Amino acid sequence: MKTKSFLKSAMLIAVLISGIMIISCEKDNETPVVENKQSSYLSTGSPKNVLDLGKAQHLFDNYEKRAIEIQNYEKQFKGDFLTSRSVTFDYQELKNYLDYIEKYADKADIPIKGLRFYFGKYPYDHYKYPGQQMLFFNPTIHHTLKDGSIKEVAYAIDESESELKIRILNELDHTIPQNQKSSLKNSNLTSMIEQGGQVSPPDGN
Question: Residue 56: helix, strand or coil by DSSP?
Answer without folding.
Answer: helix
